Amino acid sequence: MEQTMHENEYLYSGHVACSGCGAAIAMRFLLKALGEKTIIVLPACCWSIIAGPYPQSSLKVPVIHSAFEAGGAVASGVRAALDVKGDTETTVVTWAGDGGTFDIGFQALSGAVERNEDFIYVCYDNEAYMNTGIQRSSSTPYGAWTTTTPGIEWKKLRKKNIVEALVAHRIPYAATANIAFPEDLVRKAKKAKEIKGSRFLHIYSSCPTGWRIPSEMSIKIARMAVQTNIFPLYEVEDGVNYTINYKSKEYPVREYFKLQGRFKHLSDKDLEQIQEMVNEDWQRLLKKA
Amino acid sequence: MKRVVEGSEAVAEAVRLARVNVISAYPITPQTHIVEFLSEYCANGTMDARFLRVESEHSALAALIGTATTGVRSFTATSGQGLALMHELLHWTSGARLPIVMAEVNRALAPGWNIWVDQTDSLAQRDTGWIQLYCEDSQEVLDTIIQAYRLGELVDLPVMVVLDAFFLSHTYEPVDVPDQKLVDDYLPSWEPKFQLDTEKPCAFGPLVTPAFYMEMRHAIAGAMEDALEVFPRVEDEFEKIFDRRYGEIEAVSCNDAEIILVTSGTATSTSRLVVENLRAKGEKVGLLKIKLFRPFPVELVRKVLAPAKKVAVIDRNFSFGASGIFAQEIRAALCNTMKHPPVFGYVAGIGGRDVTADVIEDIYRRAKASDFPEGESVWVGLQEN
Fold this sequence. Notes:
The complex is a heterodimer of chains A (289) and B (385).
Chain A: H1 22-34, E1 38-43, H2 46-50, E2 63-66, H3 71-84, E3 91-96, H4 98-103, H5 106-114, E4 119-125, H6 162-167, E5 173-178, H7 182-194, E6 198-204, H8 208-211, H9 218-227, E7 234-237, E8 241-244, H10 253-257, H11 268-288
Parallel strand pairs in A: 1-2, 1-3, 3-4, 4-6, 5-6
Antiparallel strand pairs in A: 5-7, 7-8
Helix pairs in contact in A: 1-7, 3-5
Chain B: E1 2-6, H1 7-17, E2 22-24, H2 32-44, E3 50-52, H3 57-69, E4 74-79, H4 80-95, E5 101-106, H5 120-123, E6 131-134, H6 138-155, E7 159-164, E8 172-176, H7 180-186, E9 203-204, H8 213-242, E10 249-252, E11 259-263, H9 267-280, E12 285-290, E13 292-294, H10 298-305, E14 310-315, H11 325-334, E15 343-347, H12 357-369, E16 378-379
Parallel strand pairs in B: 2-3, 2-4, 4-5, 5-7, 6-7, 11-12, 11-14, 14-15, 15-16
Antiparallel strand pairs in B: 1-8, 6-13, 10-12
Helix pairs in contact in B: 1-2, 1-6, 3-4, 6-8, 9-12
């Protein structure tokens, strides 16, 4: 097999992500797929730091940092201005965390995709407000400890299904991706690049710091999220055509949970309940595909 | 060509004449006619611009931060609640040094819901780094929007052109709508110093540590000072072509005035009439109109007001726990002069209540009858009980 992943680096090695950061890996793969004719819109998130402090930048493409809740709107503007200037070649990408996508940025995202703005919105999902120090978001999964869901107050609400929310807007393309499946991620990013209108990529990005895992476990845990059906790999075209990209091994979720400090308080009974929830979600997805 | 147009149409005509590339706005009374006119121009092809129909005022300005950073001329309009929602991004716009122009139709803030004129919405944004220009009539609105692009693009700062709800936005007046060619002669296309460009990849608005942040803020302060120098030049150029100018401030009958009224917005027009009538009766009264509020033209204001015996400021706005906001600014401008008149602050016309000639004359009589201000602000025209 031809090895091409080492070519076309758009992320400098001096970036300031934590070791094992899934968000840095996700950006690296995304830009390999999209190339240099890309403009990144960066609402507040871990990547506001990873991209580097003034006067440095860890990216080889232009970046416009934006207010936390404004990722969809700023990208709409950049796209409109490029159109005015006759630049149809450049891809506009909003690169947001789960807070900037699921929570505070959801209105601007919904508005932008309802208008079918011609851009790619990428959510790199590390399942909490990691940049501010591990506070729960609506993407934090059932069962997780965070600094705002401590002790017995661990999160007892489900993670918001953001892909289905985007699919409900009937956008041309929505897909999940995962840093442990780089070929699938790169394929989806390249496919998204060729589609006109609003495209959404939801990238599972493990966070050793916030999940209380060793940094060398980052990829393994990301892979297990797919193998357990916690984070299925699939894509949806035009809001109706579902394709599941990975044949599940249906590993028990217990294997995934027991490796992470954020879940260590969970009892066997809790894990059985979570297994049922994952099974139920998986069956619902199978019915759609 | 002179036409009878609504104030909102004067705004829209100016935006079309300025060859704005992207408009992004969210409807709110009393700004709506502006976006309706502009939507129509974009739809019928008389204006070559993109109209972004965003889902909130916050996104309206956020989108323009995107367009202006990509190097194209950008416009929005809002009022009251909409401006309040934009607050975070007002700071962002000036911090990013983007010469976006906004028409701000002064509207009272809720609760209770009130769509009528009140300047507290825009004055509450005085510290956001936007140049603020308050207009008196529709001709001034049209001219000021065209000038605002020239001014903002010379100093790299955003400009808010402020007009009164209904009294200006919905009132029809004869307005000279200039020829496109003349406006093109006046307003060159914008050449931004920096913009998003994949050939020259840069980061815009990244993390800035204490080692650099303070200098960046100091540069904005410097740009505001530059705006004070540039504004008269912008008006000189405009006057040469269009034979009209307004000034940062306008002093009416102030030379020998013992009491000078200070106004802004449409209350100025009524005050002109009051001053004329009082002068005819031998009263030594003058009028100072403030057009440029940010940067505040301190030296010009001092020069006009310092020789007077009393200054009476009419504020259609209020800063709770302090006073009317123009009165604060006037006091601050005068306090470092060795000898200056007392400043009487009057609050009138809040939430769209009429500021009639009688109200203004009453304010003059009160100031004349008092030796010293009774307090920081006197509210006039309040109903009994």
